[in-house]
Amino acid sequence: MKPQPGNLVKTAEYKYETKALFRGYNMRVLKIDLASLSILERPVSKTMKEKFVGGKGFGLKLLWDAISPDTTWDDPENEIVIAMGPICGNTNYSGSGKSLVVSLSPLTGIPIDSNVGGYFGPFLKFSGFDALELGGKVGRDSIIFIDGDEGKVQIFEAPEGLESDTHILAEKLTRAFAASEKDADLAAVAVVSAGRGAEHSRIGLLNFSLYDRRRGGCRVKQAGRGGIGTVFRDKGIMALVCRYSKLGQDDNHAADPATVQRLGLKLHREILREDDKQCKMRKVGTAHLMEVMNDYDLLPVKNHRFGADPEAIKLASWVWESRFSQGLPDGCWYGCTLACAHAVDRFELKTGPYKGQKVCVDGPEYETAAGVGSNLAIWDPEGVLEINFYCDTYGVDTISFGTIVGFLMECWEYGILDARRSRGINLEWGNWRAACEILHRMAEGKDFGVLAGRGTRYLAQYFVEHYGADPGLMKDIALHGKGLEQSQYISKESLAQQGGYYLTNKGPQHDEAWLIFMDMVNNRIPSFEQKAEALHYFPMFRTWFGLQGLCKLPWNDIEPADNAKWEEPSKVPEHVDNYRELYTAITGEPLSRTELIRQSERVYNFQRVFNLRMGRGKRKDDYPPYRAVGPVTEKEYLSRAERYDAQLKEKIGLDPSVMSLAEKIAAHRKYREAMYDGLVDAVYKRRGWTPEGVPRPEHLAEIGMDLPELLEVVKKHV
C-alpha cells in the first residue's frame, strides 16, 4: 500500500498552538512516549536554558532526567533526543543547519551525541520545539508525523511491506506527506530513518533526508556515531517526518537581524574569495584531505598500521571531484555557501539487492573514503562508493564499519579468521566485495554480518574466547575507546591527537579536537602544559557548535586571508568573534570569549559526570589501544624504521644500532605509554579534574554547575 496520511492507521494525535520563536528559542520540548502513545509538551525552564544552552546540552539534560544509572541502551527508558540550538535554522550564516542527536549508545553504554545536517532539525524547530524526546517502545513499526504547518503530531502504524532501506523509504514518505508533488512542497518535508543494517547491528545510524530540487529526489545526511539508529529501530520507529513550508529569512526572530545578515554576507564573500585557494570545500568537501593525509603519513592504511601508500592517489580528491555530480556545490541547509556535501548521481550498483540499479550516493566524505577505502586497502573508487551507498541505505555508520572491517582483515592476515569462521567471506585486504557481503548479511540479520555488527570491542574479546587469539594483540589492534570505533586519522606521532581521541567523553571521535597539524606538523604545542591547554580550549570550542546548532567547517576550513597575522591563528580568532557577535545578534545576550568557553565547560563537565553516573568516566576508561599510540608489529616499525630509530636516539637516549627489533618496539612502547600518562595528568589538571578524571566539586562550583544531582555523583569518587 502506498503510504498516505489518509490511508494509514492512526494510533495517536496531538494538536498544539503554533507560535513564533523568540530570539532563537521556542522554550518548549515535544515528548513522545511510544509505549503509552502519549504526546505532550514540556516547558524549557530558565535554568535549563542558562545551564545547557540548547542542542547537545538539552539532549544530555533530557536524557539524564529520563533514565537511571541502571538503564541500558535497549531499555524502554532510554531516549533518543533530537535538539537544536538558538542559532540553528538561520539561513544567513553558513553552517547553521545542524541538530544534535543524543542517546545511550549500544556500543559504549554511555551517552553518545552525533551532529547532523539536513532539513529535519530546522523544520522541527520552526514547527515549534527546541527538542524532541522519544522514549518507550512501540509494539509495531510506527511513523511519527510532526506537521508544523497545521500544529499537530500524529503517530501511524507503518503499512505492511513498507521498505525500511533509506533510499526507498525517504522518497516514499517525502511524497506521501508533502502537500503536493510540486518541488516547493516536497522540499518542505524531511524524514529521519535508519534501515535494516541498524536493526541487526550495534552501529546503526540515522539518516536525515533533504529533498534536492536540482536532482528531483532525496539526499541524506547522517547522525552516524554510536549506534543511535540501532536504538531508533529497537524502539519500533520506522521514520520521523516533519513538514514545514513557511520558511523565511528570520524564523529565529533574532534580536538584531541586520547584524545577522551583515555577518552572513561577510562570511559568504570570504568563502567565495578564499575557498579555491584553501580547502576547495565547495568542489570536493572533506575529500580534499585524502592526499594531504597521505603526504603527511596520517592516512589510515590496513587498520591504521601504516599512514601512507602509493596507491592512495587512486582515491585522491580529484578522483572524487570528477565523479561528483552537476558541477555545483551541494549544501545540507539553506544559505550555506561552503556547501561541502557532495554526491555522485546515477551510480550503478554491482552487488546486493539493488544490483544494476542507478542510485545517488551521498559522498564520500573524507572519513568514509579513508575508513572503507585506504583503511581496507581498497583503492577502487567504485568499491568505496558501493560500500558508501549500502552503509547509508542500510543505516550503518561508515566510520565504525571501516574500523571494524579493518580489524577483521588484519585478523584474517594473522590466521585468526578463515573461510569457515567468516562463513565463506574472503577477508583479504582490498576485497571490497567482501566488505559489501558483510553489509548485506548484516542487513539480512545473518551469521557473520550480525557478528561483525557487534563492534570492535566485542569482536576482540570474542576472538580471544572462541578462537584462541592472543589477548594482548587483540587489545592493541582493536581500535576503539570506551567501545566506540576510532575515526580515521593516524595518531601515532601526535600525542595531542591521542588525547583528542581518547580523552573525550564519548569515545575517539575527531569532532572534539583535531590537533595533528598543530602538534606533529607545526610543533606549536611541544610541552604537556601547552597540549593540555589545547585539549581544553578546542574541545570546549567545538562543543559550543553542538550547543548552538552549528557546523564547525565554516570556522576553520575557510580562513580569513590574513589569519596568519593574528595571535593564535589556529583558533581563527576573527571567526570566533563572528560567532560571538552572531550569538548576541540572535539571542540578545552578550557573549565574551570567556563565557563562550564557559557555556561549553558546563555541558562538557555535565557529560563527564553523566558517564560517572553510568559506571564509567574515570582514568581507566580514557586509555587508547596501543595501535593509536605506537608500532604494535614488526611491519609497522619497519615501515617507519628511520623515524623510529631516530626517536630512540634523540628522545629516549638509546642506541638503536645495538638493539634487536623486539627491543626497539618495547622501548618505544614504554616511552610512549609514559608520555600518554603525562598528558593525562596535565589535561585532567587543566580541566579541573582529579588524577582519576573526576570533576572536582570546587571546579563545578566555579563554572556554575554545582547542581545537587551532580555533586551527589562526584562526591562518591573524590
From TrEMBL:
One of its GO terms (molecular function) is metal ion binding. Signal peptide: none annotated. Keywords: 4Fe-4S, Iron, Iron-sulfur, Metal-binding, Oxidoreductase. SMART domains: AFOR_N. Coiled coil: none annotated. Residues 25-246 form the Aldehyde ferredoxin oxidoreductase N-terminal domain. Gene3D superfamilies: Aldehyde Ferredoxin Oxidoreductase Protein, subunit A, domain 2, Aldehyde Ferredoxin Oxidoreductase Protein, subunit A, domain 3, Aldehyde ferredoxin oxidoreductase, N-terminal domain. Its cofactor is [4Fe-4S] cluster; tungstopterin. This is Aldehyde ferredoxin oxidoreductase N-terminal domain-containing protein. The lineage of its organism: unclassified sequences, metagenomes, ecological metagenomes.
